[in-house]
Amino acid sequence: MLPIDPLMIEHRLIERMINQVRNEIEQIELEKKIDIVFIDAAIDFIKIYADMTHHGKEENILFRDLSKKQISKQHQKIMNELIDEHKYGRKLTQELVRAKEKDIQGQGEDFHRVLGLLNQLVEFYPEHIRKEDKHFFIPCMDYFSQKEKEDVLQECWEFDRKMIHEKYKSIVEHWS
Ligand SMILES: [Fe+2]
Ligand SMILES: [Fe+2]
User: Fold this and answer.
1) Is residue 175 in a domain?
2) For residue 154, how far is its CA from the centre of ligand 1 (angstroms)?
3) Ligand showing the shortest atom-to-Cα distance for residue 7
4) Residue 176 lies in a domain
5) Which pLDDT value is given to residue 109?
6) How many whole angstroms from 18 Cα to the centroid of ligand 2?
């Protein structure tokens, strides 16, 4: 198994969640109100799974190791774009949290703000994933030896193993 295999499997789950967000957008447009339970679940998925767990492995393991290598200008350019895109995704999610909270407090303008941000997220994720799947992950594997690939994969499993503990520790800390 290559280190990019679990990352690509994660892309498929993110795409499925994004499809659910797309369905929710249609629902919101019909009903003119947001379903807070769904929005909270989507925010949790994006923050913990798509960002901390998935982007976390990309940035802290794969991109970190690639930045120690002599990669081509083209791959360097794409990697910089991907890092900027992760920041953009984080910013959208933070704005969504704020807009959702204001909407709960009944500040009418924010219903449209939530809708706008959901639309930006469903545009952003598939394009970002496509760039990684089609233009970056596979060619980047050539920079690693067999042993390095195995080490990266191992570190990815270890990263995942710790994540569930991080998540629930943060919940306890939030409520302490
Ligand atoms: Fe990414
Ligand atoms: Fe990714």
Assistant:
1) no
2) 19
3) 2
4) no
5) 63
6) 13
Q: Return residues with CB closer than 5 A to ligand 2 (ion).
A: 132
Q: Is pTM, for the whole model, over 0.90?
A: yes
Q: Which of 147, 143, 161 is nearest to 57 (CA)?
A: 161
Report the domain count for the chain: 1
Range of the domain at 143: 4-168
Structure tokens at 46: 């994006």
Token pair 């498929």 is found at: 12
In the block, residue with structure tokens 């992760």: 86
145-156 pLDDT per residue, tens: 999 999 999 999
Q: Is residue 78 part of a domain?
A: yes
The CA 11 to ligand 1 mean position distance, Å, reads 9
What would the 3-class secondary structure string for 125-174 be? HHHHHHHHHHHCHHHHHHHCCHHHHHHHHHHHHHHHHHHHHHHHHHHHHH
CA of 58 to the centre of ligand 2 (A): 7
Between the CA of 122 and the centroid of ligand 1 the distance, in Å, is: 14
Banded model confidence at residue 110, pLDDT cuts 50, 70, 90? confident
Q: How far is the CA of 82 from the centre of ligand 2 (A)?
A: 9
Whether 173 is in a domain gets the answer no
CATH number for position 97: 1.20.120.520
